[in-house]
TrEMBL record:
It comes from the Eukaryota. GO terms for molecular function: pyrroline-5-carboxylate reductase activity. It catalyses: L-proline + NADP(+) = (S)-1-pyrroline-5-carboxylate + NADPH + 2 H(+). Residues 12-52 form the Pyrroline-5-carboxylate reductase catalytic N-terminal domain. InterPro entries: 6-PGluconate_DH-like_C_sf (IPR008927), NAD(P)-bd_dom_sf (IPR036291), P5C_Rdtase_cat_N (IPR028939), P5CR-like_CS (IPR053790), P5CR_dimer (IPR029036), Pyrroline-COOH_reductase (IPR000304). Residues 223-245 are annotated as: Disordered. One of its GO terms (biological process) is L-proline biosynthetic process. This is Pyrroline-5-carboxylate reductase. Keywords: Amino-acid biosynthesis, NADP, Oxidoreductase, Proline biosynthesis. It comes from Laodelphax striatellus. Its EC number is 1.5.1.2. SUPFAM superfamilies: 6-phosphogluconate dehydrogenase C-terminal domain-like, NAD(P)-binding Rossmann-fold domains. NCBIfam families: proC (TIGR00112).
Length: 245
């Protein structure tokens, strides 16, 4: 571990922007291990990819290791997994005083594989619940739609392909036409037709409310994670200090 920290010190001292991407429950331990020996922090920017951890909480984690580290510029990000195929959604916010050139550099990096938007930090957890967790909701929708197709006799591979492509096409219609999703839905629903019958069945089963509730539940859990991580960070720091005595 000592060798890894020395290697990190060399990397940190030789760059202006550092990305920290660990599970939030391991954030304080990672910071304690990696940043303990860092001496050159002036003008450097730390980019966080950790759900539920605010800029202020991250500053406190850094401060527990070395009070001077709390002066690092911080950019907090929330990407999602479709970055892997060039269709990601990433939002970010930054600590006051972060240099514009650092912000532009990070935004350029994050924009390579999809959409990237700067937002107010108060929106980070809600956006994480929407677009960060959203791919899982979409996968479940694709699976459910394909199950419906299989039930009606469509082969599974074709049903999955059709369901996935339908969601891609629908999303592209929303983004490229600029029309409200409700308007596009109405354009598909003929009076007394099969589509409105399907929509009616979805409403009876509470699909719309289920999706809204999923976003709310994910947002609530993010807040809980942030609270747990803050408590764990303080506890870990206390344990380490006792061990040093």
């Amino acid at each position: 571990m000592e060798g890894q920290r020395m290697q990190f010190d060399l990397i940190f001292n030789g760059t202006e922007i550092i990305f920290l991407a660990v599970k939030p429950q391991y954030a304080q331990e990672a910071i304690q291990t990696l940043f303990q020996g860092v001496q050159q922090w002036t003008g450097k920017c730390l980019v966080s990819i950790m759900v539920g951890i605010t800029i202020e909480q991250l500053k406190q984690m850094l401060k527990r290791v070395n009070s001077a580290l709390s002066y690092l510029h911080i950019i907090r990000t929330m990407p999602n997994t479709p970055l892997l195929v060039g269709e990601g959604c990433t939002v970010f916010c930054s600590s006051p005083g972060t240099p514009p050139d650092a912000i532009e550099t990070v935004k350029a990096i994050l924009s390579v594989n999809g959409l990237c938007e700067e937002v107010d930090e108060k929106l980070m957890n809600p956006i994480g619940a929407l677009s960060g967790s959203g791919p899982a909701y979409v996968y479940q929708m694709i699976e459910a739609l394909s199950d419906g197709g299989v039930k009606l006799g469509i082969p599974r591979p074709l049903a999955i392909k059709l369901a996935a492509k339908t969601l891609i096409g629908g999303a592209k219609m929303v983004l490229e036409t600029g029309k409200h999703p409700g308007q596009l839905k109405d354009e598909v629903c003929s009076p007394g037709g099969s589509t409105i019958a399907g929509i009616s069945a979805m409403e009876r089963q509470g699909v719309r409310f289920g999706l809204i509730s999923a976003v709310e539940a994910a947002n609530s859990r993010s807040a809980e994670i942030a609270k747990e991580n803050s408590q764990q960070g303080a506890s870990l720091t206390g344990d380490i200090r006792q061990g040093d005595q």
